[in-house]
Amino acid sequence: MKKSREQAITDNLWALPALFISISFVCFWIVKSDAAAAIGWWSYFLGWIPAVSMLVWCRAKGKEMGGGAVFAFVALPLFGLLFWLNHG
């Protein structure tokens, strides 16, 4: 069954925090400089924008958030805590 365009977009937006977490991970663990740490934190905080935007959008439309919301709102705080413990 083919997904609608709206469903494909929402699925990708829910998964987008993974990209920002990955960028932060590379900055913190591979590049390891002060500038990279700053970029890592900016990337991490920017990762919250699609997740919060989708939360607001789903609430406004009365749609179910699904597994993407669980992923986003578990991964972001978890990795934020890990990044803070190692690079706070």
Write the layout of secondary structure elements.
Layout: H1 5-31, H2 34-46, H3 48-61, H4 67-87
Helix pairs in contact: 1-2, 1-3, 1-4, 3-4
Characterise the protein shown here.
- The chain is mainly α and 88 residues long.
- Helix content is 85%, strand content 0%.
- The protein contains 4 helices and no strands.
- The radius of gyration is 15 Å and the shape is elongated.
- The relative contact order is 0.17.
- The mean pLDDT is 89.
Give a brief rundown of this model:
The protein is mainly alpha-helical.
Oligomer: single chain
> Helix fraction?
over 70%
N-to-C order of helices and strands: HHHH
Unreliable parts: none
Which range does the strand content fall in? under 5%
Rg over C-alpha atoms, rounded to the nearest angstrom: 15 Å
Number of helices: 4
Key features of this structure:
88 residues; mainly alpha; 85% helix
